[in-house]
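Q: What would this chain look like folded?
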Amino acid sequence: MKTKLMKLLIGGLAFLPVPSFANPQCAGIQAVDSTADCTGTQLTTSFGGIIDTLFIVAGAVAVLIMVIGGIRYITSTGDSKRIQAAKDTILYAIMGLVVVILARAIVGFVLGNVTG
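A: My prediction, written as structure tokens:
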């Protein structure tokens, strides 16, 4: 079950849209617009959008797994092994959510310093 879910999630990442970061005006291919932003701001803005989307997906998955852990806890019918497995699921989901929040803070700090 867990391996199938992980394969599904990782396989789903292949269908996320990937923008092109190439700006032909910055490469000198079409020098039509002399006001083109070639400082890297476009790259960090695009990269920031992708990262924001991934963080939203990761947060939603963490919350979904917490709900699944709660349902498993409720339906454990007093079996100590099932209760412990449900508690572990909730704990790991909370730890994953904390990692996602910390990673978002780090990425925000780095992108803020790159753009100047």
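The two ends are 45 Å apart (CA to CA).
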